[in-house]
Write a structure and sequence with these properties.
This protein is mostly helical. It has one domain. Helix content is about 60%, strand content about 0%. The radius of gyration is 16 Å and the shape is elongated. The model has no long low-confidence stretch (mean pLDDT about 75).
């Protein structure tokens, strides 16, 4: 079942991906704060949101998809 809220606060995420620049190993910087792959995904998503990386949906697009899927489920249930 999907989580209803992110397990890490947005401020922590922002600080984490700002520390992880190109060529910097996130795991060494943040040891036990969050899994390395989790932080790499935050960096990827931040790049998508800033339109540096166009390989996937932005956070706004993901939220819109969730909203539309929820509306479709509700309409099908009627």
């Amino acid at each position: 079942m999907p989580r209803t809220r992110p397990p890490y606060p947005p401020g922590f995420r922002r600080r984490s991906w700002s520390w992880c620049g190109p060529g910097v190993r996130c795991a060494r910087l943040l040891k036990s704060s969050a899994p390395d792959e989790t932080i790499r995904e935050w960096v990827r998503q931040a790049n998508r949101d800033e339109e540096v990386d166009l390989s996937g949906p932005t956070t706004g697009e993901k939220e819109e998809l969730c909203r539309l899927r929820r509306e479709n489920r509700q309409r099908r249930a009627m």
